[in-house]
Amino acid sequence: VWRQTIEQSTGIVLRMFRALSDNTFRPARICFAHERPASLEVHHRVLGTAIEFSQECSAIVCRGRDLDMPIPAADPTLHREVERWLDMQLADLRDEPALRARQIVRMLLPGGICSVDRVAQHLGMHRRTLNRHLATEGESVTTIMNVVRAELAEEYLANSKRRLYEVAELLGFSSAGDFSRWFRGRFGKTPSEWAAHYRQSKAAAGPISHT
Hints:
GO terms for molecular function: DNA-binding transcription factor activity; transcription cis-regulatory region binding. InterPro entries: AraC-type_N (IPR032687), Homeodomain-like_sf (IPR009057), HTH_AraC (IPR018060), Tscrpt_reg_AraC-type_HTH (IPR020449). This is AraC family transcriptional regulator. This protein has about 210 residues and is mainly alpha-helical. It has helices at about 1-20, 40-45, 65, 75-95, 95-110, 115-120, 125-135, 140-160, 165-170, 175-185, 190-205, and strands at about 30, 50, 60. Helix 5 (about 95-110) crosses helix 8. The chain starts with a helix and ends in a 6-residue tail after the last helix.
C-alpha cells in the first residue's frame, strides 16, 4: 500500500507540473526509495523512463531552468499560500521526524509489519536517512516502537475485555508468548500480573465523588 501511495502521489504531482507548464515540463529524473518492481511498463507510460529506485528518498528531480518557467495561469495570492504551506511541510520534515515516525509506527503495528524499512518507506526516504534524522533527536525506530508498544499495551490491558492474544496481535507480536516476554522485560511483570494490579489499584481508589 505504501508503495502504491508514493507512486500515485508522484504521478499526481507530475501531472500537475505538466498542466502548469502547458505540458512542457520534463523531470530530470524521478527517484523512489523502494526497490525496482518486476515490470516498469506502467511507470514508463505515466512517469517517463528517467526513473531510479533504491534511492535515499523519493523525489521528482527538476532542472534549474524548469523552476524558473513562467506559469501562464499564475495566481500571486495562491502562490503565496502554497509557498507558506510548503514552508510548513519542510519545517515538519526537519523538526519532527520522531513525531512522524511515531504516527507511522502506530499505524503499522497491528498488521505485524512494522520495521525500520517499512517506516522509512512510508515517509518516502531511505532507512539510512531516517536513522540519521532520528539520531539528531536521540531516537531510533526501535526505541519509538518500544515506547508506542508500552503505551498501547497499558491501554489495551486496562480494558479487561481484550484477551492476551488479541493484545499481542494489536502490538505486532507473532504470539502471546513473545508479547509476554517483551512485556516482562519492559514492566517487570507479566501482562496478567500488571492487569490484576491495575484492577486492584482502581478498585482501591473507589468511585470519584462530586461535591
